[in-house]
Amino acid sequence: MVFGWAGPADDPAVPRASGVIGTSRARKNCLRGSRERIVVRRGPPAGGLNPCADDLVLELNMNRTAVVCTSIASLAFMGAAALLTAGPLDPPAGPVAPSYKTLSDVEPRTAISLANTPGDADSVYRISQPGSYYLTRNIVGQAGKSAIEIAASGVTIDLCGFEVGDSGIANRPAIIASGSLSAITVRNGSVRWKGGGGIALSSGTGARVEHVLVDGCGGTGITVGTAAVVSGCTVVASNGAGILAVSQARVEQCSTSQNAGTGVSTSQWSTIIGCVSTANAGNGFSVGFSSTVEGCSSSGNTGAGFTMGPGSSAKGCSAGQNALDGFTTETGCSLTDCTASFNDNDGFTCFNSTLTNCAAYENQLVGFAISGRATSCIAVGNGQNGFASNSGLIADSCSASSNSGDGFAIGDDSVLTRCRGIGNSGDGAQIGTDSLVEGCVFNTNTAGYGILVTGSANRIQNNQVASNLVGIGCTGTDSFVVGNSARANTTNYSLGTNEYGQIVVNPGAGFTTSNPWMNVAY
């Protein structure tokens, strides 16, 4: 089998190529005899020449078997290939140097030690230069000192899974940044510091705290300044707030529990995502002006589940079994897909806010004590009213059922459209002054009214009321009641001196009355 041509050594006209080794059918005559020969061809046979003339013939004393021949051919091929491809036998001049990189080359950083980062009167270790630092062992606190004091911007500390701890003698935070510093990062370890706060980076900007457990600290667990990020941290049983951040903070995937203050507290323009806050002595979450909370859970706190500053928003959050309200918002807030259940006060207490697809279940007081707008919200089984508003509520496609008070207790200047109040212990809906109730269904509120109008100048139209104590009743004056249907109430209509359309009782099939404002009783 021919693999290539190298060209004869004595023929410069033939171009040289890679060497070839193999046996050729044309040379089978050369392989006869008592010995096997392997031919290394150096060039093509010239016409009329002995076909073996230009070959280098290797003769091997061996038995003539197919297996051995094959092995010899393979060995010869590998040996010739090695001769053709091997590099120079002489090494390059000079000493032999390693080609690998050390860990310091790959990730240059400095161990925190007395030699590299000596402390002072306030600290066990003090970092005074920018750079990357790491622990090589646990740190044990000393009286009146922080474990690590950071005195330069641009410092990253990797705790490397070690613990910073003391027995209560420090009276200072475990890790503290002194001065208005920036770009400080602390990550990957635990802090158990009974003598003071855990990680205190509040005086600067752009701090990061990542994947740190803070447990049983004597003050606030984690404190960060402006534009900080706290990610993947757990703060338990601190004698203060769990996580406290100034404005423009981002807190994500963190857990706070059993702290003496609020679980997570931030100032204005902050974002909290995917966090859990439980059994804290304050609120679960407190956020300032124009902040965002998303995918968070707050339960078992002594305060409210969530308190939110003006213009803030919450989405996909839940508040359960808190001692105060589930959600408390100031003006201009937006809540979407949020749930409040089994709280000791109201589910939602919201002033001039917008609620969409929210639910209040089994709260001790009111489900929704709100003003503003509620769309597709549900109140079930609350200890007082399902929805309550002093004034200014617009509720569309909302439902209140099985509440111990009224389904809707709506004050002045409100609008109810396409709502339903079913099986409440009080009225389906109770209305104040200058309000509109249209296209709603209020049934089986057996101890009260389907709709009770206590004020004046309201418009009640195109509603259905059934199986209530009274279908529609008006104790005020000057309201306009038209186009409603009442069925199987103990009393279908009790309208007093208000303005109302003709009441047609049992109009029957194909009724022909021409009064477009009529109310129907059947």
Number of helices: 2
- Please report the total strand number as a whole number: 55
| Structural classification | mainly beta
Radius of gyration: 43 Å
* Low-pLDDT segments, ≥5 res: 1-85
Q: Portion of residues in helices?
A: under 10%
Largest sheet: 53 strands, mixed
pLDDT averaged over residues: 86
How much beta, percentage-wise? 35-45%
User: What would the principal axes of the Cα set say about the shape?
Assistant: elongated
Q: Give the CA-CA distance, first to last residue.
A: 106 Å
In short:
The protein has two helices and 55 strands. It is mostly beta strands.
Structure characterization notes:
The protein has 522 residues and is mostly beta strands. It is built from two helices and 55 strands. It has a 53-stranded mixed sheet that branches. A hairpin with a 2-residue loop joins strand 4 (118-120) and strand 5. The protein is elongated and about 115 Å long. It starts with 35 loop residues before the first strand and ends with a strand.
